[in-house]
């Protein structure tokens, strides 16, 4: 699956994080990758994040999953919308929707949320803090897009939804199956289903807030500091007013803080670990039994392909010919011999490794570790 008649360079230059873009059916042969009944089934499962939004515009109510199967038979004819998060973690055909967007760095990818709505269903006018590609899977949806919003934008009072109080659309489009709308962060938008069986796939890209970065990095550094590493002023001199915090004291304390936070190499390792943490920490994808090194060697020698867990997050940071590989909150220091394999694992979802890797101890150890933590697996078909 790929995007046709789509210039990545033009998109990045003219639209990415700048303005919305409507893209009419850019696929060779669009087909909806998920049946509505399968989506409803996922919403009934424990451990899968879902929401059911019911009621007319202005009176929306939200129920969080897992939902009882009988709930869908109780909805009647009033508008409703089902939202299921991270469907790409569970449905390979939905995960495949991410592949055409690999021109965006993989560490920015969040997940694929899937929505199903009946006629008139929607979540109301809102704005998000992330980039999103909205792909129409089934049916038709009317999208209205407004101006860029921020924290000063008035919102309606609602316990569960951030609804814009005074939404004024600047663009108005109807999307058919296969059509796609890109919405940058902050832009107001409102999607309403036109008819029943309306399915939309939302490919979201995350961005850390400055507050999250400062809080996470500071806490990480603080955890490793010694109790005796404290402010000291052995050169203290008498000051005219004991109530004053002197500039000299402030300079010394500010320097203490900035020195503790300024280690870029340490920050790089921390951010790789932090950014690769699984979206759902409680999910356990590990196999029942660890794989033996000789089994890894045998499968590699046979040319067996390796597939990443769609729920796993992979990224790397170069260090000369070596690199740090980050997978699901773990760091693997890869030397020059294993770095090409690590890079390949980060770039594609399925890898056909060179059988010669069966004799490379570093590669075998890396593959074993990733399989044991549930981030990688040999293809069952092989």
TrEMBL record:
PROSITE patterns: JMJC (PS51184). Residues 93-222 form the JmjC domain. Its cofactor is Fe(2+). Keywords: Dioxygenase, Iron, Metal-binding, Oxidoreductase. The keyword Iron applies. Pfam families: JmjC_2 (PF08007), WHD_ROXA (PF20514). SUPFAM superfamilies: Clavaminate synthase-like (SSF51197). The keyword Iron applies. PANTHER family: MINA53 MYC INDUCED NUCLEAR ANTIGEN, RIBOSOMAL OXYGENASE 1. This is Cupin domain-containing protein.
